[in-house]
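Structure ticket #2291
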Amino acid sequence: MRAQRLTLRGWPGGALVGCALGAALLALAPATLGYDPWGWLAWGREAARLDLATGTSLSWKPLPVLLTTPISLLGDLAPHAWLLGVRFAGLLAVVLAFRLASRLGGRAAGALAVGALLLVPGWMRYLALGNLEPVLAALALGAAAAYWEGRPRAAFGLMGALALARPEAWPLLAVLGAQLWRSQPTARPLVVGAAAAVPALWFGPDWLAAGDPLAGGGVALAAPEALALQASHHPLLEAIRRALDLLLAPLWVAAVLAVRSSSPTVRILVLSCFAWIAAVVVLAGAGYAGLSRFSLPAAAVLGVLGAGVGVDLARRAPRPVRMAAPAALAALLALAAAPRLGRLDEGWREARDRAVALDTLVDSVQRAGGERVVAACRRVTVDGPFHTALAWRYDLELNRLGDRASTSHPRLDASRSQTTWVVRGAGCPPRERRASARLAPRRAGHSSLEGNEQEANGGEEP
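Resolution: structure written out below.
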């Protein structure tokens, strides 16, 4: 494949405006946050007050807290601002995927890359619940574009931002830093700054706030997702399977073929993505959760490269093959994509259900005494993935929330039946007083509010 210059300069203005308008329209969709984003907002508020407390059921990562610290100053508008930012980043990732793949294989490749990204399992859920993955996908695609354009400083900066959210980016950041050190001596202060800032921001807050620089790693190793993976028959194979599930099978084939591309840049990008996924698998072998979303930034770039290379190879094939290739490729992609199409709206339905459940939970707490009773009880226990949401709503440290099995009296307890939240004080006011609010009945087979979401209770590397 002949290397082409992406020439992304000149288009970002219109693209950014379009993404901003799209994010504003998406604001009309169900609006609530998942487990981790509520916790990041709570930590951001604590960081703004210089009173951060980590080492809780949420494992520390610097990037989201660096973002939520200024956002938390917006008060009640902060959750909406975070959702708007995540959805903007998700749309920007889609635009980047189209632009990059189009440069490799034309608009057909661009459309294929967009479809691949939208069909990543969980993508719509991440947009609906404000997870960090759309931001990381945009950063990864931006870093790939900058590297392709020969802008190593921009690529290094974007990879540095990724390294503040995912440890799998650390080796790639080190390699980029070494290249930048040799090729651009004037950039050496940037490399030294990143080498100092990344470990300081990962381990320093846990050291200062929890007394242990590896506290986040301990939380991640003890997460239910990590324990479940280690209890499986083949943890490493399961981690690989999860990563492979991110892209349609034909795109994986094209991505592997891209290793033999005539473009050195394409080969480097493909191998870098495979190195990222290998790091996820290695960490899974070390006891961490190995969730599929940990590989999503690499998969986003591989989807683009696979789409571009695949379409380009089809065009270079002998004429009989070239004539049949579009129909064959379309059939293969349709067959692979069909099971995923019916699940595209699951994330938005989950966001709607969570919004209803959270509103009725807060209403129940308010009936039981609201801020006064929350302040009087040393601990708060709640069913489902709503601990961090209550921490934000009632300005609580995350270590004041837990489950009944690990929490002693006194506590404020919120339990959920099929259609009702019941809140009562256990050993603290209101003693034995109950307040309830009704919920819409849960659909059969739908367990999104049962506390089984993947990011709950950590599930992250240190």
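Closing remark: The two ends are 39 Å apart (CA to CA).
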